[in-house]
């Protein structure tokens, strides 16, 4: 709630917009890796870019209060599409990393590849239960915020695992 107040809102939103740029670069670099080096599928790239676009839209709408049911529905749709596209992108990337783990053994720690795969499968299962819960119960906005920001924090671990995965030469 504090990030909605002046002047912190400008600092917070600026860092989130910068993170959107880094997300795009992350997915673009993995596309380059898979297309040029491994000659493999890079379907994850499109979902990754979509997640960056939805995060951009979410940040853009952050802090804007409009008394419109359509606008509130649009904001919920954007955040749901961000989470969904991010999970799909991470799932496809994890599968491709797993399939190419033998080719990447000189560059990556294979243990982290297994951790990334386990992580995204766990997040997918948790997401299924959370979505089922949200479909059955109408939770308060405080619970929505808690779920939303915990998803953001949880999905950031995937990027942290990517940092740990690459061997530093």
SSE topology:
Layout: H1 8-37, H2 44-61, H3 69-99, H4 110-136, H5 141-165
Helix pairs in contact: 1-2, 2-3, 3-4, 3-5, 4-5
How would you spell out the order of helices and strands?
A: HHHHH
The residue fraction in helices comes out at over 70%
The low-confidence runs, each spanning 5 or more residues with pLDDT under 50, are none
| Distance separating the two termini | 42 Å
- Gyration radius (Cα, Å) is 17 Å
Count of discrete alpha- or pi-helical segments spanning 4 or more residues: 5
Shape: globular
Mean pLDDT: 84
Secondary structure: number of strands = 0
**Major β-sheet annotation:** none
Strand residue percentage: under 5%
Provide the structure class. Answer: mainly alpha
Question: Quick summary of this structure?
Answer:
The chain has 169 residues and is mostly helical. Helix content is 78%, strand content 0%. It contains five helices and no strands.
Q: What does this entry look like structurally?
A:
It contains five helices and no strands. The radius of gyration is 17 Å and the shape is globular. The termini are far apart. It is mainly α and 169 residues long. It has helices at residues 8-37, 44-61, 69-99, 110-136, 141-165. Helices cover 78% and strands 0% of the residues. Helix 1 (8-37) packs antiparallel against helix 2, helix 3 (69-99) packs antiparallel against helix 4 (110-136) and helix 4 (110-136) packs antiparallel against helix 5 (141-165).
């Amino acid at each position: 709630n504090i990030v909605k107040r002046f002047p912190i809102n400008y600092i917070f939103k600026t860092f989130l917009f910068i993170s959107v740029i880094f997300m795009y670069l992350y997915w673009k670099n993995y596309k380059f890796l898979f297309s040029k080096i491994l000659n493999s599928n890079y379907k994850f790239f499109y979902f990754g870019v979509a997640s960056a676009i939805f995060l951009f839209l979410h940040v853009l709408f952050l802090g804007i209060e409009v008394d419109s049911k359509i606008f509130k529905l649009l904001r919920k749709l954007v955040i749901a599409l961000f989470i969904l596209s991010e999970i799909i992108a991470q799932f496809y990337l994890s599968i491709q990393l797993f399939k190419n783990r033998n080719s990447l053994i000189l560059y990556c720690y294979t243990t982290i590849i297994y951790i990334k795969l386990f992580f995204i499968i766990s997040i997918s299962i948790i997401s299924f239960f959370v979505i089922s819960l949200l479909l059955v119960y109408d939770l308060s906005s405080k619970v929505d915020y808690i779920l939303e920001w915990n998803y953001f924090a949880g999905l950031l671990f995937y990027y942290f695992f990517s940092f740990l995965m690459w061997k530093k030469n």
